[in-house]
Amino acid sequence: MDKVAVIIPAHNARRTIAQAIRSALAEPEVAEVVVVDDASGDDTAAIARAADDGSGRLQVMVLTDNVGPAQARNLAIRASAAPWIAILDSDDAFLPGRFRRLFAHQGWDLAADNIALVPDRLRHDPAALTPPQFSADPQMLSLTDFIAGNLPSGGMGRNETGLLKPVISRALLARTGLQYDKSLRLGEDFILYVRLMAQGARFLTIRSCGYVAFQRGDSLSAHHRTEDLGNYSRAARQILATETLPPEAREMLTRQEMLTRNKYHHRLFLDWKSRGGLRHAAVQALSNPARIWPILRLTARDKHMALMRRLGLAAVPHDAVKVRYLLEARADQG
């Protein structure tokens, strides 16, 4: 049986951490679960320990300084030993049989299954946590398609292939010497997977669903900081400068970096406006002409959306009202 180390970084996750741990310990392929309490201000660590099933597989590490999810994952990976690594966010959960379905396929270094995007209010609803039986439809994901799927024009449903949660070969990490970029608190998964695939890693996807991502408005990814956007843009530029990429993949990553950099410039403008007023923000923006167009365009977009909301014409976010799936899939005919 293939053995998996499940890595769970956690910060102030007292409400959700037990569900995440129990879902991991329920899988027979899981040899160890490593929770890293990233300097929580609540009793996350105590609740995590209380979720132990007595099998000796759970380890809870407690950090005194907040290092962010990327470095917390690095520390947990170093503290574990199983040949396969699976990342589980502290507010998410595995579905039964996840690893059995993934390991039914061979010839991969990373393998990810479908993700159910479930409104947080349905966290304990059995119906919401029982996805349809989708056909596996195994496919190797190219680097170009992976990056393209993370763009707004991508064809992966929610357009965020970076949300995929692959099982990762420890041997792959050892061979490449790669780890999560500890400076990142946004896009750390996407950047690592791009680097691994640029080094030749084979990324398998299946359409069966084994991971639940609970959707809530106060998640870290929903409220990133200005500097997080800047660091994400920097990491993408570093890949473009150092890695040999297929031409189409390079084009896609260049677009990804440009979109992120535009968002960063817009957020800088809003920060300047908040600190020193509109005049101060305008002076700062005009000091770099490359910033002006993205600032104007994204400001106009925000004002348009605000007007639509006031008029009651803006649609309710679909992830607030129903369960969705990251990957398009068809019903299993077997």
From TrEMBL:
InterPro entries: Glyco_trans_2-like, Glycosyltransf_2, Nucleotide-diphossugar_trans
Domain Glycosyltransferase 2-like residue range list: 6-108
Highest taxon, organism lineage: Bacteria
Protein name, UniProt field: Glycosyltransferase family 2 protein
Organism: Paracoccus rhizosphaerae
